[in-house]
Amino acid sequence: MQNSEFQALAMVRLERAKELMLEAETLLNDEHYKSANNRAYYSVEKSITALLAMDEVMTKTHKGCLLLFNKLYIREGKGEFSQEDYKQAAKAEEIRSASDYDDFYIANKIETKELVDFSKSFYEKVEKYIQSK
User: Fold this and answer.
1) Which domain holds residue 13?
2) Which residues of the chain have pLDDT under 50?
3) For position 121, which CATH number holds?
4) If you write DSSP's letter for every residue of 12-59 in order, what string do you get?
5) Is this model's pTM higher than 0.85 or not?
């Protein structure tokens, strides 16, 4: 892929992140907490993969996505991302996994709202970073 193709990919992923974030908000309002957790996490994941596309980096796994975000944007200091962003993204992955696969996991409104709020603020931070490039 060429640089312009990676930039186009980043924009497609960012648009999908926004769509997922809006779905998460709707599901939260409808009290579908497990599904809201799923959509919020995937919004975060798509936001991260949009960032990675800007650096012409691809990953195939959720863990790889988080590890590369930590390496490139936290430890190497690209953008205005913080260690807290990484911790929240990792927590989002854990909550999504429990919501999707743990039959006995009870999703609650407070935790889900925090995750949805994070997905929104993270999306906005990523959008601002990408637009500055």
Assistant:
1) 3-131
2) none
3) 1.20.120.330
4) HHHHHHHHHHHHHHHHHHTT-HHHHHHHHHHHHHHHHHHHHHHTT---
5) yes
